[in-house]
Amino acid sequence: MSEPCPFCEIVAGRAFAQMVAEWDDVVAFRPLNAVTREHTLVVPRTHVRDFASDPEVSAATMRRAAELMRGTSRHLNLITSRGAAATQSVFHLHLHLVPRTEGDGLALPWHDAGGSEVGQDQPSPCPQRDQLAAEEEQ
Predict the structure, then answer these.
(1) Which of 28, 61, 80, 92 is deepest in the core (most CB within 10 A)?
(2) What residues does the HIT domain cover (predicted)?
């Protein structure tokens, strides 16, 4: 038997989390292993595996993250992952809101230990973006 989803347990009130905000469709709470002060997870109440599993739930979750940050000028990363190779460790859609400060030393996952960009020799996953960037350079 598999372990219950930890985020479903939090949403159902069977596991503790320090709540930041609650809506009828989404909750926001502090993660157990925050990487910066005020790191927050934004999680739909509906269990969906990742951002591609249900675009409507994903969009609603993103909207709530934006509402939570509206009115602040904080610098932050908004991060989500899909699959273990992309660093997803809980297989329930969640958005990380990671406040940042200049020189905080927190490396993004797409940089190697030396700070070099990874994947320079890989084909682009978004040829449309590449085309737009090329047109902007002209």
Answers:
(1) 61
(2) 6-107
